[in-house]
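Why do we care about 3D structure at all? Because function follows from shape, and shape follows, mostly, from sequence. That is the central idea of this module. The next example makes it concrete: a single protein chain, its amino acid sequence, and then its structure expressed as tokens.
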Amino acid sequence: MDLGIKGKTAIVTGGSRGVGRAIAHTLAEAGVDIALTYQGNKDQAETVVEGIRHLGREASAFQVDLANTDEANQLVDRVVQQFDTVDILVNNAGVWPTSYVKEMSLAEWDATLNVNLTSVFLTSQNFVNHCLEREKRGKIVNITSQAAFHGSTTGHAHYAASKSGLVGFAISLAREHAKDGINVNNLALGIVQTDMIKEALEKNQAYYVDRIPLGRVAEPKEIAEIASFLVSEKANYITGATLDVTGGMLMR
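And the structure:
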């Protein structure tokens, strides 16, 4: 299927590994140039960039600490300086720390919300203004979680709160800019085979898999294909939606 996005440029935060890497690669396969962010592992990010370039697309990796509001605020401008424009924003980067509320520090709470929610506000705000200045349409997809609706029993209340915030934020942003041709949607993920949850799965795989009606953990490529559809020309009539990609953990 031709998604109609060949020649466009996308930012994929957290694009050096896991779901972000799969999204970046899948968009590149559809003809999209990629600006991906990473925080720590430059070699890992550059490997993704080289893979995308082998597909014949432009790609660059930007080191960004999304917990730092100044760095998050500068991301879109940095990408525009190099690529001239941005058409797609995928807010994928996130952290999943473990701490029960009774012992959680304010610093842990703030750090989680800064990466998972505040950085999304900043990147989205700058992306929207870029689109408005250029009088062009745009697509935003945020990666949220089933925890936004179910909460957490395993010490991730700050994560669940941040992901719940994404849902309300996306609806509001979609309402504000629907008439400007800027579509804003979320993907609510369940359990995906990534580094973020690898240790938890190794310790207690049955606990997690037994919660999934389809009976298995998702592969990043499966998520990437759905995200690519949501930012494509095939999804122009979808905005303000949260699409459940959870293997049935969410059924609404």
